[in-house]
Amino acid sequence: MMRLLTGASPEETFEFLPLSIEAFGSTVLVEGTDRARSSCWVHAWTVSADGIITQVREYFDTSVTVTRVGSGDSSSSTSNVPNPHCLPVWQSRLPDRGRKSLPGLVLAI
């Protein structure tokens, strides 16, 4: 898929180097980079109760924030959180963040 998205030739190799693995309920996130740290990626897997991967999402050169969406009393308030029902639980830790601007994406779980 990366070759299709980036236009890389079949002769070019891309080695995925995982930097972190996190799990939130049925969602597993793996973030990594290439050896030169010039590109980054996030894979999000949805895993069923019996351990079968049922969905895979891949984000290439994109900053990902995972937000847990919950229900609750709308009258409750938290002073430093804009919406207490959408709490960020994970954010990409991108290599060399200052070198390039990347699109951002919020993944709700």
Brief overview, please?
The chain has 109 residues and is mostly beta strands.
Task: Characterize the structure shown.
It is a single chain. With 109 residues, this protein is mainly β. It is built from one helix and seven strands.
CATH architecture: Roll
**Structural class estimated from helices and strands:** mainly beta
What share of the residues does DSSP label as strand, in percent? 35-45%
Give me the Rg, rounded: 16 Å
Write the layout of secondary structure elements.
Blueprint: H1 2-6, E1 17-24, E2 27-33, E3 40-47, E4 53-60, E5 63-69, E6 86-91, E7 104-108
Parallel strand pairs: 5-7
Antiparallel strand pairs: 1-2, 2-3, 3-4, 5-6
Can you give keywords for this protein?
109 residues; mainly beta; Nuclear Transport Factor 2, Chain: A; 4-stranded antiparallel sheet; 3-stranded mixed sheet; 1 helix; 7 strands; 5% helix; globular; NTF2-like_dom_sf; Wun1-like
